[in-house]
Amino acid sequence: MKNFHLPLPEQTYEQLRAVSTRVQIPATVLAREAIDAWLREQARQARRDAVAAYAEKMAGTGVDLDRDLEAAAIEHLLTR
């Protein structure tokens, strides 16, 4: 574990303390979990962006989806 000093606005600090007291979990644990969740979401978004950029770049090239496969998938989704 590494320590990280994080000054918080008064309102944020008070809200964190109130939740901490209500759920009986240390504020540091709540803050750590919130930061971890945000970082995981950032990583997921970066992956989605990378996949979308790759798909856009490769659209219409030899590595693009097979047109017959794509049509079959669309047909399948529309009949569900």
Strand content: under 5%
Count up the helices.
3
Please count the beta strands (DSSP E, at least 2 residues each).
Answer: 0
Radius of gyration: 23 Å
Number of domains: 1
Query: Which descriptor suits the 3D outline?
Result: elongated
List low-confidence stretches. none
Describe what is shown at a glance.
With 80 residues, this protein is mainly alpha-helical. The protein has helices at 10-23, 27-58, 67-79.
What does the secondary structure layout of this molecule look like, with pairings?
Elements: H1 10-23, H2 27-58, H3 67-79
Structural features:
mainly alpha
What does this structure look like?
The chain starts with 9 loop residues before the first helix and ends with a helix. The protein is built from 3 helices and no strands. The chain has one domain (10-79). It is elongated, with a radius of gyration of 23 Å. With 80 residues, it is mainly α. The model has no long low-confidence stretch (mean pLDDT 94).
